[in-house]
Amino acid sequence: MKILLHICCGPCAVYPVESLMAKGHWVHGFFSNPNIHPYQEFVKRLATLENYAARVRLPMIWDRTYDLEGFLRTVVFRETERCQFCYHMRLRAAAQIAKSGKFEAFTSTLLYSKFQNHELIKELAQAVVREVGVPFYYEDFRLGWAEGANKAKKLGLYKQPYCGCIFSERDRFLTQPKPKK
User: Fold this and answer.
1) What are the tens digits of pLDDT across the range 47-78?
2) Pick from 56, 57, 62: nearest CA to 6
3) Were both Cys, which of 14, 28, 42, 103 would link to 148 (CB 3.0–4.6 Å)?
4) Can you give the pTM of this predicted structure?
5) The pLDDT value given to residue 176
6) What is 89-145 written as a DSSP string?
7) Bond preceding residue 11 cis, omega within 30 of 0
8) In this predicted structure, what is the pLDDT of residue 179?
9) What domain count does the chain have?
């Protein structure tokens, strides 16, 4: 099957790419991540994926736009539900590219992370399927979490310390002051 794989970053691509190829699928990567902030983080993730894709000869489609305003407009006043909107925007972009590129299905490395909401991703992907008309290929890539992480480390791929958006960066690094007694 000709599958378009939405890729959020290099380390998260390792296991899904290997798994899909091992099953005999023709895999083409797609980078579209307007959620990644700040800009320097976006550049690091993009460069890491460029490096990885070149190493494994993974054909790629690149969306290098840094749409800070677009992402923030999508999640503003819905910050606690931001992941839902973030998943949807990236899955929809992948489905649209898959349709125009005559791919048989699309999927995402979001399914690799044990930190993402799989049920919500599957639900939103099915909504996108109804909207765009390209099948979604589901595989629980979390089964290869440790294997993929070890291979990414051996390859020296930059591993980001948070999901991607400015809110997840805050949640990861903000230390709340201890209450005074």
Assistant:
1) 999 999 999 999 999 999 999 999 999 999 99
2) 62
3) 14
4) 0.94
5) 75
6) HHHHHHHHHHHHTT-SEEEEGGGT-TTS-HHHHHHHHHHHHHHH---B----GGGGH
7) no
8) 67
9) 1
Q: What's the DSSP call for residue 81?
A: G
Q: Which amino acid is at 83?
A: C
* Peptide bond just before 59 cis, omega within 30 deg: no
Nearest-angstrom CA–CA distance, 157 and 168: 21
- CA max distance for the chain: 63
The tens digit of pLDDT for each residue in 100-139 reads: 999 999 999 999 999 999 999 999 999 999 999 999 999 9
List the structure tokens of 6.
Answer: 């939405």
Task: Give a yes or no: residue 66 inside a domain.
Answer: yes
- Per-residue confidence band for 40, with pLDDT thresholds at 50, 70 and 90: very high
Contact (Cβ atoms closer than 8 angstroms) between residue 166 and residue 39 = no
d(CA 12, CA 111): 9
Q: Which domain holds residue 82?
A: 2-173
Q: Which amino acid is at 91?
A: L
Q: In this structure, what CATH number is given to the domain that contains residue 17?
A: 3.40.50.620
Residue 6 domain flag: yes
Residue ranges of the alpha helices (H) in 3-117?
Answer: 10-22, 39-56, 68-75, 82-100
